[in-house]
Amino acid sequence: MVGAVTAVVFTAVHFPSVQLLGFAAAGGLIFSALYRRYRNIVPLGIAHGLCGAIIYHLILQRDLVERFLSPP
Question: Distance between CA atoms of 11 and 7, rounded to whole angstroms?
Answer without folding.
Answer: 6
